[in-house]
């Protein structure tokens, strides 16, 4: 019966965990002897149980696993020292425990990503039929072989790949490929896909218009304030416009002029559709890095920098003056050897600096390709190939970095005193400088051989150099002001806070040594308190006697 079963389980438990068995037996005895609740009992009268009459264990046992896990964690925590305490029983210091936690979180993130990928492949393979599987393998083989051939043999393999794709296409939910490979592998059948997404649409020329044929819904992502498809500046537009007039006489002139090599897929569609979804939230760059681009090129809808960071970040903007810079002319543009040498030396120094461990590097030259070639050659001579790979080092022009990013970017302004350069003001240069100034996530090094006074006030180089020189300073932990603790009372309003409650919470946090900023603006909203740590920030919302309304809760 139930009593015998309970006794047997208790005996087995006592053999494994006597203390837990004694607790269960004592609780059962207290439950059996507990008197029913009586209305005449006062709050001071003791009872064996205070959580109501009846057997509590059926409800408790449903959460036994969670309670056990909690007890294990509580036991471990009791043996773990405070941040300023001694080492743990296993010899681990608080710093070691933090490192272990970081490593465990990295392993968990990697395992989660691997699991998601494995589940996606499992689902894909389960829904794939035998014919689709064979066609998919045939497609892979024909593409691999056809890529090594030329002439009529290559065309035959491309045709075979397209035929295999007709069968294999539905086996894979999403296909990702460069635009140049779409025509050679995807059959030219209307609405072959449900949706086509074109990334970097501002880099796609008019020869990408065929993508509109492949799906009833097309999403084009681009930015007309960044680099567009390369165009030969010597190419005359008159022959192109004359052919457009002859071949498209029924198309209005204001539409015809858009079908030139100087247009992109994004710009062409932007003029045809009235509503463009503007993505203003910017998560990549430090606020100081993206501020110049936002003010110069997005005045109608400024970008909202939302990059989160801690108190020990790198200085976002660093200007490095090269006093003896000079330029030499080459067919590929000017070269500034002194500036190149200073830049290369700084790249090598950063590669040896522990603060830059694990960060990627990029070098962007704002004028011509000769300076990029010079820097690339010198880095190849003085930096190992393994370090190149570790840093994902790339050297090039702004157009080379379109759609790319690096943690740290080194910019070379190239121009030198006495050059009397032509002011860079055209739309083409605006796009190039916008890209160059916004490729870095954490830090920009600007190497310059001139002062702002040496450049025309309309020159983009003057604007950007002036901005970096004015903004280059040691990194602040947060764009906010932390009032001294002694100036913040708990019973008198302080202008930096929204309520006395905020001030009291600030006192508790700041009194424990935390760096706390009140009323920090984020994305047009204010956070009551922000606690800045070494690598992250923590937001604290202080709701007093009057709680937030539904709209505020939703926000």
TrEMBL record:
Superkingdom per UniProt: Bacteria
Skewed-composition ranges (Basic and acidic residues): 37-52
Domain Restriction endonuclease type II-like positions: 501-545
Pfam family, one: AAA_12
GO terms for MF: 5'-3' DNA helicase activity; ATP binding; hydrolase activity
Record-given protein name: DNA helicase
Keywords annotated in UniProt: ATP-binding, Helicase, Hydrolase, Nucleotide-binding
Keyword Acetylation included in the entry's annotation: no
Every DNA2/NAM7 helicase-like C-terminal domain range: 263-446
Ranges where the record places region Disordered: 30-58
Native source organism of the sequence: Candidatus Frankia alpina
InterPro entries listed in its UniProt record: Coronavir_polyprotein_1ab, DNA2/NAM7-like_C, P-loop_NTPase, Restrct_endonuc-II-like_dom, SF1_C_Upf1
